[in-house]
Please model this.
Amino acid sequence: MAKNITPMMFAVCVLVAVSCGASPTAPAQILPVTAIASFDEDGGTFAAEAMLAIRDLATWQNLWTQLNTGRLPQLPLPAVDFTTEMLVVAAMGVKPTTGFQISVAGANEQQGRVTVDILETIPGLCVTGQVLTAPVVVSKLPLRPSAVAFSVTRKVRDCG
Model:
C-alpha cells in the first residue's frame, strides 16, 4: 500500500537519517603542560603581544638568548627534548606598570588541532610600580604535529 509523503515528512526523514549516521565528536584530549620559564620584567623581547609554538632547538636557543638580553648572569637554557616535546610561548607585550601576569592555563587536542588556553591577569584598582614590564611565559607540552591555536582569557585582579 503506497502512502503519500509530504515534503515536510521527507525533510524529517532526511534529518533523522543524517543525524543518526553522523559520528559523534571525540572528546578533547587534555595535554599536560609544564611552565618552564616566566619573565615579568621588560626583557625587550616582545614589544607586542605574541603567541607561538616552538618545535626545534635552534629556534628555542635564539628565543632564550633574546629573553636573557641584559640579564647577568644569563639563565641556563632549560632542557627540552624536541623529539617528544614542544614549547608554547605567550607574551603580553610591553605594559606601562607592574601587576600584569600571563600563564598557560591548560591545553587540549581535538580533531587534529591543539588549543592552548592563556590567562592574562591585569591590575585593577591597585597601586602599581610605574615601570615598563613585558610578561612572558614559556611552557612545555607533548609534541604534536597539529596546528596550534591560542585562546586568551583576560581577568582583572583588584588589590585589597
Remarks:
- The mean pLDDT is 85.
- The longest strand covers residues 113-123.
